[in-house]
Amino acid sequence: MSNVIAFMRDSLTSLVSRMGTERDKAATTFYAHTVLSDEQLIAAYSTSWLPRKIVDIPALDACRKWRAWQAKKPQIEAIEEEEKRLNVKGKVLEASKKGRLFGGAAVYIGIGDEDPSQPLDVDRVKKGGLRYINVMTRRQLAAGEIDRNPESEWYGKPSIYRLSGVNGMQMAIHPSRLVLFKGAMPADDEITGNPYQGWGDSILQSTLDAVKNADSTAGNIASLIFEAKIDIIRIPDFMANLSNEEYKRKILERYTLANTAKGINGTLLLDKEEEYETKTAQLAGLTDILMAFMQIVSGAADIPVTRLLGQSPAGMNATGTSDMKNYHDRIQSIQELEMQPAMVRLDECLERSADVRDPDVYYQWAPLEQMSEKERADIFKTTADAARQLVGTTPGQEIIPREAVSDALVNRLVEDGVLPGLDAAIETYGSLSEQEPSEKEALAAAAAQTTAKANAT
């Protein structure tokens, strides 16, 4: 019975309005899978600002604040030094942009071993062993045969990649040596017939129609501006005398002189029998129409209009906070669900190249929101109050040892940037755990221990 009801609901027809029949206008609308060529993608990215922003903005936002390593200070400095030497941030940003544009790009992890077609052995990377990282797009890097072994790590993915070299030479590269950025997820390579099997779709594939509509609307509005004011002059027997070349010459001279006189003193000289009229195009509402198309582009690209166009939120009491929060959540999802898993082997090589082999070392993506001075002050006060509650007021009766809280608090304040120069001050004066307790603190701690023993007995 439920199937019959569902069928009736899904196939609702109206013979009067032709809805649901073969003469329904909506019945002629269908989706076709058209793959944009590389030349079309490059032309759109190179010549139109909207496609360039759609490609660049999420990639830039995912990398601009980068990440904060959680480790001991010498370890953090060593890892960050390797990141700077190899330009990891810049290479990941480049690969992310090209992956979004073409539907596929990769960062090659170069450790200098002989056979790149073999799996990457991370344990072989010694200090300084990560020699270089290079960016390649799917235009140079062809995906090989898809691995169909369900017990393989690479199931459903290419088991090998082939890099096109000089003079038609090709180099086989194992996927473990690549940090892959695949753009938009393809629906199904086998059904759609994706010519670049093993890679994703360009981000522009599903947004370019909306972009072209917005660009066309803007272009038409720009053309309309030139026709916004038109002067119309009616001349007796104008069409009858057009065959006379001397007449045409005099007409041009006549109204060139009239236009010049009008430009000098604002007075238009006409014959008594001539009629003059000005028509002005109605431009009201064109901004709303254009912004409606821009809203569609914003939705297609999943980027807030305020970020896409670089403008302030419109409307009374509008702040755009909710839109930007949702957008930042999306960027964080890209970082944690796409970029971080893809960079696992690169990060392992990076740590070993920095001579850091501590399994407790990890990193967090830095938040994208920019804090005001008041917010920074509030965070500082909240953090300090929380640390004070953990330590308590009586030495020897802390929930967490004072030294541990002090070190954690210093790390937090350094990461938040609340107290500039705190790192240098700690190096000069030492941390709390490195300092000898004062006589007053020692006496208080001894008294607290004596009291605790007396209570225990």
How is this structure best summarized?
This protein has 457 residues and is mainly α. Helices cover 48% and strands 10% of the residues. It folds into four domains: 1-30, no CATH class; 38-200, no CATH class; 229-280; 373-456, no CATH class.
* Helical residue percent band: 40-55%
**SS-based structural class?**
mainly alpha
Query: Span from first to last CA?
Result: 78 Å
- Note poorly predicted spans: 4-9
User: What pattern of helices and strands is seen along the backbone?
Assistant: HHHEHHEEEEEEHHEHEHHHHEHHHH
Main β-sheet: number of strands, strand sense, barrel status?
3 strands, antiparallel
Which outline best applies?
extended
Overall domain count = 4
Strand numbers in spatial order across the main sheet = 3-2-7
**Tally of individual helices:** 16
Instruction: Tell me the β content.
Output: 5-15%
Gyration radius (Cα, Å) is 34 Å
What integer is the average pLDDT? Answer: 82
> Count of DSSP E strands?
10
